[in-house]
Amino acid sequence: MRITRLDLACAGDKGLKGHPMAPLGQLVVLAGPNGAGKSRILREINSALSSLSQAVLLSAQSVIANVQLRRMAVDAQQLSHYQQLALWARCVQVDQEWRPGSVVDFIPKTPQLHDHRQQNEAQQENAVKTLRENVGLGNIAAYASAYIASVYKRAFAATHPDVDVATATKEAASIERDSLAGLIEDLLGTRPGFNLDQQPTLFGHPIAEANLSEGQSLLLQMAVALHAQHKRLDGLVLLLDEPESHLHPAAIIRTLDRLRLANPSGQIWIATHSVPVLAALPIESIWYVNQGEVAWAGRNPEIVLEGLLGGQDGRKQVEEFLALPAQFAGHRFAAECLIPPKAVNTGPDDPQARQVREFCEMAVGAGTPLKILDFGAGQGRLLSAMRERWQPEGTFSDCIDYRAFEPYPDPPGRLADNVAATYGPNGANRVFGTPDSLSMIDANSVDVVVMCNVLHEIPPEEWKKVFGENGHVTRVLKPRGKLLILEDMEIPHGELAHRFGFLLLDYPHIYRLMSCTEGDSDKIVTVTALDGRLKAHVVPAGLLGRTTTDSTKAALELLKTTALENIRHIRKADPSSRSGRMHALWTQLLANADLGLDVL
């Protein structure tokens, strides 16, 4: 059953003002400050509808009609009662016939749970029977622990080898226990246990000794009621009056979700002044109550926030508070953009190192080491991560012929030590510290050049020296070699990598930088990880040698356009720590690209 229309004129004597509430769906939310009339509305619905039936209403209408026709005489008090019933009949519409008990208060009355261990077996059985045969939370504190114990003991007994019951009965007992455990875990965040004394436990202790807070105790009661009564809840009108008085907003939302699933053809009325709860509920279900008046908030949700927060100033203060994470993240990122980057040494499970390792494991050939140049090797984190998680047959040093280029070692010697740990004392000969020293690597000898979080640190006027004709990378790669460019497109910290800051290039910008065309037989392949945040661009050697000043300008112009598009998109979204950081990132990229264009 659902109340589809309600006019509060039926409760004018309770300080509520007539206003039709319609249409009403599965969820009806009454929002407003303390003393606004929310609880009065729920009390009137409960007192008037919980004992009504269609027969009672028809009887009231008949009595009034007979009194008016002077066929019946009743005293003033009786007449007033019948008139109130008739008024409710005119002011309330439901989608099916009223029946007594259709309206249920679904908020526990006390957090103090009874200890079922103090009850005898007959009392425990009666508690379970009462919970299963009735609805509501009126006396559930006295029955909850007994019910949990009964469900767990039945499941335990059903699996005992000496218990002779049908397989279907065993399975049903186990399913019942698991569903109760799932409900409790969903609402309380912990799964019940079962100890050697055959007692259910929470947080490692029998329920009565678990030191539950008031909120945890109330949530446990609601979980038990949902489990014991779920088949009887459907079709009821459930009333929840200010559940936030004892429960965390997140717990209220989880409970409402469970109630809606258990009561698809019924209705839930909730009175609340919790902004977090309201934020999680559909706006079309919210009605604003103030001084006994009610108004639908769907077309004007501002009235709810301003009413709860003390007007426009209060709402503005909350909006400013909610924007603080975004502002803080943006300010911190912008400040970091004035500081040179620091070398990072991550572990073997670093996702970018895994991307490189998997690429190399597929590329390594039988009997021939794969020659790699780690361009901008830092402290050698890539080498360490690949070595520790190497999967193919043969030792890492036999499979990978590693070289490292790092002009700014920090701290000095760390990279050489890492290389020596793999290739022995002569490993230092594999480390190069200046662009000129790269000429010691034979031309057309390298299978893979890896740039892991390096390209964004190279000044744009240097790009053609790296990728252009006779560029450092162009010269050393084999004709069928690959350039592997990895970038974190949401770098967590800003950095002043060079005088223009940093410049993050994605696939379209690299395409422009390399002067690619649709007619190229070789294509750039991009692989992503972490929902697109980590990009690995595989550039065939055949696309190198074409980077020029003009292609560099084209890449930077496109980066400016990309940055502007992302800034516009972020400013339309709700503020968050991530959006603040991303706004700062794209603002920096817009400025950095513009600065780079100025000197080209």
Task: Please give a structural write-up.
- 44% of the residues lie in helices and 15% in strands.
- It folds into three domains: 3-23 and 41-102, no CATH class; 103-234, no CATH class; 351-562, Vaccinia Virus protein VP39 (Rossmann fold, 3-Layer(aba) Sandwich), CATH 3.40.50.
- The N and C termini lie far apart (73 Å).
- It has helices at residues 38-49, 54-68, 76-91, 121-133, 144-158, 167-188, 214-233, 249-262, 275-279, 302-309, 312-336, 351-363, 381-388, 396-399, 414-423, 463-467, 472-476, 507-513, 549-572, 577-599, and strands at 3-7, 20-21, 27-31, 92-94, 103-105, 193-194, 200-202, 205-206, 237-241, 267-272, 286-290, 293-296, 370-375, 400-405, 431-432, 446-452, 477-488, 525-529, 534-540.
- Strand 18 (525-529) and strand 19 form a beta hairpin.
- The longest helix has 25 residues, at 312-336.
- The model has no long low-confidence stretch (mean pLDDT 83).
- The strands form four sheets. A seven-stranded mixed β-sheet has the order 15-14-13-16-17-19-18.
- The chain is of the alpha/beta class and 600 residues long.
- The protein is elongated and about 115 Å long.
- Helix 4 crosses helix 5, helix 4 packs across helix 7 and helix 11 (312-336) crosses helix 20 (577-599).
- The protein is built from 20 helices and 19 strands.
